[in-house]
Sequence to fold (818 residues):
Amino acid sequence: MVSIIEGGLTSVPGFRATGVEAGIKHGGLDLLLLSSDKGPIPAAALFTSNLVKGSPLQITKEHLQNGKLGAVVANSGCANAYTGQQGIQDARETAELVAELLDINPGDVGVASTGLIGTRLPMNQIREGIKKAVKQLSNSWEDGTKAAKAIMTTDTCPKEIAIELELEDGTRTTIGGATKGAGMIHPDLHATMLAFIVTDASMTPAGLRSALQRSADNSFNMVSIDRDTSTNDMALAMANGLAKNDRITKKHPSKKFQKGLDFVTTELARMIARDGEGATHLLEVHVEGAESRKDARIAARAVVGSNLVKAAVFGEDPNWGRIVAALGYSGASFDPSKLSISFKSEEGESLILFRGKTTSEENLIRAEEVMGEEKIEIHIDLGAGQESSTAWGCDLSKEYVEINSKYIT
Amino acid sequence: MVSIIEGGLTSVPGFRATGVEAGIKHGGLDLLLLSSDKGPIPAAALFTSNLVKGSPLQITKEHLQNGKLGAVVANSGCANAYTGQQGIQDARETAELVAELLDINPGDVGVASTGLIGTRLPMNQIREGIKKAVKQLSNSWEDGTKAAKAIMTTDTCPKEIAIELELEDGTRTTIGGATKGAGMIHPDLHATMLAFIVTDASMTPAGLRSALQRSADNSFNMVSIDRDTSTNDMALAMANGLAKNDRITKKHPSKKFQKGLDFVTTELARMIARDGEGATHLLEVHVEGAESRKDARIAARAVVGSNLVKAAVFGEDPNWGRIVAALGYSGASFDPSKLSISFKSEEGESLILFRGKTTSEENLIRAEEVMGEEKIEIHIDLGAGQESSTAWGCDLSKEYVEINSKYIT
Fold:
């Protein structure tokens, strides 16, 4: 049983956090600091698959060689990507500044950034921001929320969650997380997803990494806002072991912990999708009846990522032909004559296509009503097997174009 | 030397064509008929890669088994896709109707459709339309243009071209073509590309097919309007041999003919891109310095297909960071520190990035001016090799969302 508790990162014992206004972006909190009371603890991170990787990712990867981190610093307002050797140096210096003030090794500090590609980190602001943040660090909910706010870009709200659950050995553990969505720092900058997750469970670095990878595959990796993959995506997790449970390792994973972590990352992924740029609808695509898990995943992602499907959702239009076409080019294997599609929301459910045949004009009109709600689900049965998957996204609105067409110059 | 001549399909000796209003869509020409005076001649076609294929594609494929066609009928207003056995029967009957009136075999008629997925062809309208079209067939430029108009959907103008060129053996040959763009029949229907190309060159079916495949790979297959692949895409070519050149075969291709065909398909592809739904800019992405041809292609396609790049082009914003990011996730292999990017238009050229380094603030401001033109080129040098490729697309405008969010119900 997973129960949601108040707060986010700071709801987990042994972690302090905060967010400050360092002056990196024009107004608002823009520097997050997260610190482990115990000092360096098992940590793991996943990075963007983009060939061009931001400088902070390279530093964080390097610092994770020993599987441990004691603190994380992240800024919005500048991605510190495509900034060459200078960028690496700036990310390294950022880690050093945090390390010095927290009295840990620079190698124990993770660094993340989101913002404009190709411009240098404003190091004076970073320096002052870090000083301020170190003084302000606390385990209050308010400071947890400040941390979540400090990584926001075009996000319209902070995104955080915390849960409690009981592990197989009876110990209770807590997981807290904060994320930012696929939005632009300014109307001109590149979309980036950042996620930070902390827990008091006792885990090895490899156990944590493996659990994080598993959860991310079914959550963060199933979110599509605009099919553009950032240079700076990072999901980072830390585990301090204060729960004193039987250690979770790669060889001896905990199903219950995995379930809790899945819950946290799925909720964060849903928050990202719901708050996609210009989004007016949260879109959830459930694919079942797939021949393989991979087929289920690529089918769900193709539908949630299709500009035509997204524009139809914006128009609250049950245009099922576009869904059929997206499934057709997804690469998933299925027999079109066995396909079923329904639309679902708080308003109810309407089956449009049943085993390759349209149901009724009435159901199509009903589907329109169903699509009038904020959260819309598309349920697809490929009729080809037993595997399933879910993907999250949002509609394609005129607001999206507006946000992303503004000048950088 | 390729010279452009007046007209399109009917500019090629031995072909007649026309377009009529059959009443399949709400007003306007909606049925194309193309006929070979010589009767069945070598023909070849390429079809959508979508798993879900429209019924006409299945019939045309079947009829091309012997490598010959004598006529082609195509309609806009209804895709006849996802219509089951009934759809196959309707497409077959369409071919039979044309065959009867032209006194050829049903197996010598190609069929194509574009429009709403999942609804039946209105066979009464098809029947009457075919009768009208057979009577009206002519080799006048006007009827050629009518044919091009009859396949239009949300296209804002007909798309046709004709050229003359001299082959290696000194004979002169003609190539004519018509296409429709990636638009929607109604604001509610699925995007489809259709292209018809005729020539009086003497070719075997395999020679024609191979030349068409080659040309399409560098033209139609490099156009991206919205990354959604239709169920009904078709590019079809016919060659009647009246030019009496040395027969072009798969084993003995003609470089000159290939160059001419490349020219035709590239021009048609450019017309499609320029007239993409809601497009305000034609975007041409040139990638050079790639390690392999495949890398050049996937890099060019990733940039031209990126929603973020497209939105930036709509905003006339030289947001080169988004280009770097798109190249990074394209899968092409390159060293980011060797990358060069410039923007070019009738207004001039501005180099933004040279071997991994930004040039100057002045160039960025200049690039903004350069992007003020209707046709914008992005030139990318990956600095990784000798291969190159070009892709075509258009910007992502609010109009695109408007067009694609309207109701089907």
